Amino acid sequence: MKPLLTPSILAANFANLEEDIKAAEKGGADYFHLDIMDGHFVPNISFGPWVAKQMKAITDVPLDAHLMVTKPREVIPKFIDAGVELIYPHMEASYDVYRTVQMITDHGARAGITLNPATPVSTVEGVIDLIDSVLLMSVCPGFGGQSFIPTTMKKITDLRSLLDELKPEVRIAVDGGITLDNVGNLRKAGADFFIAGSAVFKAPDIEQRVKDLKKAME
After folding, report:
1. Does the annotation mark 181 as catalytic?
2. SS3 for 86?
3. Among 195, 206, 193, which Cα is nearest to 146's?
4. Which of 84-112 are b and which e, b meaning 16 or more Cβ less than 10 Å from the residue's Cβ?
5. Closest by alpha carbon to 117, among 159, 86, 170?
6. What is the pLDDT of residues 48-88, one digit of tens each?
């Protein structure tokens, strides 16, 4: 599978969000990533569906949303209505994760599932028939700019083996601490969907950084 890059707008300059988005788009961003935080599942609060709606007015690049929220089923329809194509709820956020993921597909979007650093990869087996992508957190969710957790590398290889056995077309996304220095090794381990916030939007030249990351991913 061709590797994909999705810059996380949480790290963008919200005073010049359109400018940052256009620069990343010009560089070849495959998706834009929205980190949705409710102040309960994680300590911070970010933004709601209105940001996705505003983004859809300025870019044709598809959007994916990572729901760091305690009650994902309350917000899933709102983000899909706002134009988000791929949604990642957390495995740890719902007592009935199958119904949560099924709600995404029932509303016409593509579903992923997110695993926190300490959550075993075997848990995806219960929703494997519904998902297109598994998002492995390589930092603790809820804060930007953290360092990559090294044990994620083995988790990627273990998950890739499991997916190859059960449903090979499912992608492995990695979020947290992605840099030019580690993206190549993550790709070799089996990841193919890279979420990068600070690595893209804190770079002096956003367009060039997207190009450099995509080259390193190959």
Report:
1. no
2. strand
3. 195
4. bebbbbbbbbbeebeebbebbeeeebbbb
5. 159
6. 999 999 999 999 999 999 999 999 999 999 999 999 999 99
- Catalytic annotation on 175? yes
Q: How many domains, in total, are found in the chain?
A: 1
Pairing of strands 63-68, 4-7: unpaired
Which residue of the set 20, 38, 64, 175 is catalytic? 175
Q: Beta partners for 115?
A: 136
CATH of the domain at 199: 3.20.20.70
Q: What backbone phi and psi angles, to 5 degrees, belong to 201?
A: -80, -15
Q: Which residues contact 188 (CB under 8 A, 6 or more apart)?
A: none
Rg (CA), the chain: 16
Given the structure tokens 């190959």, which residue do they identify? 218
Domain that holds residue 175: 4-217
Between CA 37 and CA 193 the distance in angstroms is: 21
Cα gap 119→108, rounded to integer Å? 28
Give CA angle at 164 (152, 8), nearest 5°.
45
pTM over 0.85: yes
**Phi then psi for 4, rounded to 5 degrees?**
-120, 145
Please give the structure tokens belonging to residue 218: 């190959």
Catalytic residue among 35, 38, 64, 192: 35
Here the tokens at position 170 are: 């499912």
